[in-house]
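Shipment paperwork, digital attachment
Item: protein structure file
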Amino acid sequence: MIYIKPEILDRINTWLTPTFDKDTQAIIKDSIANNPEDIQESFYKDLEFGTGGMRGIMGVGTNRINKYTLGKNTQGLSNYLYKIFPNETPKVAIAYDCRHNSKSLAKVVANVFSANNIEVYLFEDLRTTPELSFALKHLGCHCGIVLTASHNPPEYNGYKVYWQDGGQLVPPHDDAVIQTINDLDYADIKFKPDNNRIHYIGKDVDDVFIDASVANGSFNTPETAKDNLTIVFTSLHGTSITAIPETLKRAGYKNVHIVKEQEAPNGDFPTVASPNPEEPAALKMALDLAEKVNADIVIGTDPDSDRLGIAVRNGDNKMQLLNGNQTMVMMNDFLLKQWKAKNKIQGKEFIASTIVSTPMLNKLANAYNVESKIVLTGFKWIAKLIHDFPELNFIGGGEESFGYMVGDFVRDKDAVTSTLLACEIAAQAKANNSSFFYNLIQLYLEHGFYKERLISLTKKGIEGAQEITQMMIDARENPLTEINGQKVVKIEDYQLSTSKNMISGDVSTINIPKSNVLIYYTEDGSQVALRPSGTEPKIKFYVSVNTQLKSVEDFKTIEAQLDTKAETILKDMNLI
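Attachment content:
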């Protein structure tokens, strides 16, 4: 019989008091008797905010997504809004995705806000995350909430918090909100709604958002070029079906083929093992359709439509999936060309990315004489740059995990506008007797051939969390001095905020917020980063290798060499 630790039992017993409804109590009592291992997992800690808000498995308990954990978050956020805006009536916008319970949980959140005399603008049905970011600014709201677990498995849901600039919660507000939440008891939650304060929104906001997406994602592509581009699109059962087809239509793209089997929103994601466009298997049905219709480009988005995966035809006329770094490099270069052509680059512009994304972005920025700002993983940090540097003009930014943001009208990664941007790139390239893929090779010729590889190790539950913690401790206490026969010349530790030159021994300070990340740099220019995920029970290893590409004809050979090198590094580290 599994023994439940006393401290966990105390937490469980709190949920057996009258503060919690009878159904919740009945589930807990049944789990204690029949599934004690699960009940320990559900209560051994409080669900925490990570890089993308709060995500977790749905169910009862402090470590689960449910009406009480989200209610407590919302009560704490309500209290904080009154503290920060004491002379105003706070306003919030709320959106939700296709996941099970998203709609009902969104209503719970709306109820709690309204019970605290806060004006609520609740989308009438599922909407994309970028539309929420746009809507809260459009409506003059003080904050916003999205009920989503992004690309996590079906049993997950989540709670993303946005501030009045449209970006996710960042310092100093994030820690202050968390402290306010932690100071509350569950009995403090006001669940009884004031329905007069809940206002439903829909098509009126949709139209403004889609028009803004077209305005920000269109770049004078001729109608003939648009007509000549064949697009396959899949929403992977998610929310993007509410925005992307209409955005492409308004932008003038007529030849769009939607994967019908994946068109209807469905929280079970029945046709894929994972609704994650980072996973090649997720786009299989779209790739099959692309062959039938001879498509030029395939685009798939995750459930809340902030990430996108792209496939284009390679030199052999075969559909090839691009990784997030390749897509980001192409989008940045295209936007930079547009700005340069319009004489808009005046020395006060920047692009942005993250510490685990491709170093190629710095090369690109230097070529166009713009600044490249590198921040922690998580798009909230890119959005924060726009807020922190109002004197600079933000062009675009992305991260390796398939997210990109065009300009600043949305302050989070935005698969809606980015889908249109990808089509603009492909259409213009084809019209110029080139292709999306060939233009990527040209960038490698000009700036160096950078290739990245990601390995994620899943470690679930209490023991998994402890194992991930120990892996990072071991990496710090016994750092690698050599990787794949190459000396480690520098180690950056973002938790200690130090950068150590392993040759001279000199240590300098990293002036960005602390994060549990280690990055090794080797003498041949390779990089390996270690980072526990902030939203999933995983530890991630990012490898970046590079070399020079001297001709288009050498592309396949050099790519194979880089792929082999990345593979060898991972084997050397016993990761594969």
